[in-house]
Write a structure and sequence with these properties.
By secondary structure, this protein is an alpha/beta fold. The chain contains 8 helices and 6 strands. It has a 4-stranded parallel beta sheet, with helices on both faces.
């Protein structure tokens, strides 16, 4: 009949006192200590205390690190807690992406008050892809389209001006982009959406709203999304907007 035994996990072992306590407890219960400690100092302490108290210990991660070091020529950092740091960054990025999707294209005005940065502009100024790019940089972004026939949400005017970025674009460049968009959708390029007069009206309306908001404005006419995102990230850092 197979006997049962307990497995006790002790996370976040960071000092000599913890090691001594664990080894003594293992001695009392005739237990084996298996460890994944990366700190050379603590590993040596475990070896010394195990020998002192005649406790069987097994280094699980040490041989693997040495094998990788030998094969790759890379020196391990031997810094505990790095995985937890990566986990925090990962979850912060996921949270920012979910936020960008939820509050994209003015879907929910309440999100504007919770955003780290709010992007405004007319259609096809890359608000959504820019929001997603920034979200991958762990920034919570909401965006609002500016359309003459639709009044911007009241929440937009309750946000501090420094948290809003307006996107403008050359009208001729915008005409090209919208015309290609219509063609991709199988629609006539003569639609009002790509009409030059209509675009002029939209841009003038957008400029008027941005003046009311007193927000920072970026001309995206000849800029890649990465470049515009870089400018916004610099702006966020300078104004301490990141949470």
């Amino acid at each position: 009949m197979q006997e049962k035994f307990d497995i006790i996990r002790v996370p976040y072992v960071k000092d000599v006192q913890q090691v001594e306590h664990i080894i003594k407890e293992a001695k009392e219960h005739n237990a084996v200590v298996c460890y994944t400690i990366v700190s050379p100092e603590l590993c040596q302490t475990i070896a010394d205390k195990a020998m002192e108290h005649d406790v069987e210990v097994v280094d699980i991660i040490g041989p693997m690190l040495k094998a990788i070091e030998k094969t790759s020529g890379l020196i391990p950092k031997n810094q505990p807690g790095l995985i937890h740091s990566l986990d925090h960054e990962y979850f912060k990025r996921v949270e920012a992406i979910e936020f960008a999707v939820k509050y994209d294209d003015g879907k929910n005005p309440w999100g504007l008050l919770k955003a780290e940065i709010v992007i405004v502009g007319v259609s096809r100024t890359s608000k959504t892809p820019l929001s997603m790019y920034l979200a991958h940089k762990q920034v919570k972004v909401a965006n609002v389209p500016l359309v003459p026939e639709i009044q911007p949400p009241e929440e937009l005017f309750k946000i501090p001006a420094k948290k809003i970025v307006g996107l403008l674009i050359d009208p001729y460049k915008l005409t090209e982009i919208r015309t290609e968009r219509l063609k991709a959708m199988g629609l006539s390029d003569g639609a009002n959406y790509a009409d030059m007069q209509r675009i002029f009206e939209e841009l003038e309306y957008a400029k008027a709203i941005m003046r009311r908001l007193h927000c920072t404005i970026i001309d995206v006419s000849n800029r890649a999304i990465e470049e515009t995102a870089g400018m916004i990230l610099d702006y966020i850092r300078k104004n301490n907007l990141s949470k």
